[in-house]
Each structure stands twice: as structure tokens, then as C-alpha cells.
């Protein structure tokens, strides 16, 4: 009887024990799942951070690769420039060696003798006279500026300072436009008509130069643009306009220390072209600001043929141009007035400033940033406070008597 009484209690105990065990196991499973979830979340956080670090490293590596690519490109440019410089130097050394060999062959070594200073001075003077005589004989032009006939305003374009030029030897109908005192974009027009048309800019050709120019003293001659390279003291670049490459370069000794014209302080070397070829106009420093110097340059080899120290001052000067081996310096005032030519220098000494009257430009008050002579057209191309102008000239023979001018 007692057994039947204890049996239900035993069954209840067993049932409670089983239920409690299941609850305990479920609690343990829940804790285990929570632990696993926390570990998975930690792993996900670490994977996310690893992914972020990986993306960061990839971006840094790409930036580093871009920087290295840019620097390698710059090194290739420097390598090309250095190679060109070495090639030019080698060709000039060969040219100098040939000149030395030629001079040695023409002038054999003489025995050393004592010579009187006066005799040396006479010999130098005779040699100089012979040189001038050769220049007179070799000169194929004896034009002298006698007057500035008229003014034609072609257009107003670009900055207040700039340069517009034509090539008298090749593609002489084209116009080359260089706005500003520094830049690297040359604008080429097919002719005066396309230059003056309002829509001319749409058909104009843009040529990007490898170097920026300095000042406004550029010229185009025989298919090449000659300009003073910006950022250098006296380097002149010879640029092939058709194929867009640098053909040659030179250093013009003695130039670049002071502006060639006091009223155009942005121009240190003013290139010029006349009937006798390519010239460079620059200045030597002195107490008054600068004395103008003229240098004849072989346009093919960029070799200096001869240099003349003139008597013309850069003080009060705004521009200059060459006609038949004669330098004409244009003067003005700081505030802008009537430009006039009051100093010339003839490399053959046929005429002097004392024989030459002051010539005034047609009345237009302003300041020229450039004046260049075109020997094919016998006209002056000028840039006057942003206006592109043309001056027609009156010329005569150098040995003729001077007419009277007002």
C-alpha cells in the first residue's frame, strides 16, 4: 500500500528532474549560442577593419604609383632636354674646332717680337676699317629711313602688351599673334583677312610652345620662331613652327642683365629681322640704365657674327627696329606721348645720328610694346596699347642728301 502511495511522488520527482535538466541544458545552449554570436561579431569587426585597411593601402599605393609616373615623365623630359643640350654643345665644339683649325691654317705662328703700342693701335684700326669696308661691300641694301608716312590700325586684341609678326622669308602671308609678355601659346592666322574677321579665332591655329617666352621681342624668320626663353638670363630658342619642335638654342653673352628699353621693362632681348638677316638688340648696364648693343646672328647656326656697342641709350626708349643694318631707337615718355626716332646706329658707319633728323610717328598718343620691321613689305608692325598697327615708311639711299623734315 505504501508503495502505491510513493509511486506518484517518485514519478513527479523524476518528471521534475527531467524538466529541470532540460531547462538547464537549454540555458547552457543559449549561453553557448550567445558566446558564438559574440565571437562571430568580433570576427566580423576585425574583417571590416581589415577591409578598410586594405582599401586604404590600395588608395595609397595608387597615389604613390601616380606620383612615380609623373616624376618619371618629368625625368624623361629632363633627359630629352639634357640630351639636346649635349648634342648642341657637341656640334658647337666641333664648329669651334673647325674654326680654330681654319684660323691656324690661315695665320701661321709668328715669332715673338716687341711691338710699339702705337703700331698695335694702328694695326687694330686698319683691321677695323677693313672689316667695315667688307661690310659695306657685302651689304646688298643701303636704304635709310626718311619718314613715317601713315598709320593703319588693324585691330584691337589681346593684352596691353604683346607682339604680332609676319615671316618675310616663308609663309609670308601668315600672321603670328603672341599676346602678353609671357606665355606659351602662339596663334597662327592664315592672313590679314582672317586676322581681322570677328570669327577669325575659330579658324586660327593654336601652337603650344615647349617653353614660355619673355617680353615681346619675338620674330618669325624662314619658318622658325626666335624668342627669349622665360626664366633664363639670355637663352634664345629657335622653334620650328611647322613641326612644333625646338631646332636649336643659344646663349647670347652679355645680354639679359637689364631691360633693353627703359619703357618696356619686360623685354630683355629684342630680336629683329631686316634685309641682312637676323639680329638681337639688348643692353649693357651702366649708370644711366643701359647702352643699347646690336648683335648680328647667323639664323642657320645661331652663331654670333659680330657685336656693336652703339651710342644709343635705353633711357626713355620703348622700342627699336633694324633696316638695312641700321638700328633705329624709338623714344617716348613714361605717361605715353608721341613716339619719335631720335637715335640711330649704322653698323657700316655711312650715316650717324648727327646726320639724321628726329622723325615723329603719326599722331597717336600711347606707348609701343613692340615695333618690328618687315623687309618684304617695307612696313613697321607695332603693338600700341593693345592696338595692332601698321606704319608705312618713306626711305631713301643712305648716301643721298638729307631732306628737310618737320
TrEMBL record:
Predominant localisation class: secreted
Residue ranges constituting the Olfactomedin-like domain according to the UniProt record: 140-397
Source organism superkingdom: Eukaryota
Pfam families assigned: OLF
The keyword Secreted belongs to this UniProt entry's keyword annotation: yes
Keyword Secreted part of the UniProt annotation: yes
GO cellular component entries: extracellular space
Coiled-coil region: 33-106
Keyword terms: Coiled coil, Secreted, Signal
Protein name: Olfactomedin-like domain-containing protein
Organism: Scyliorhinus torazame
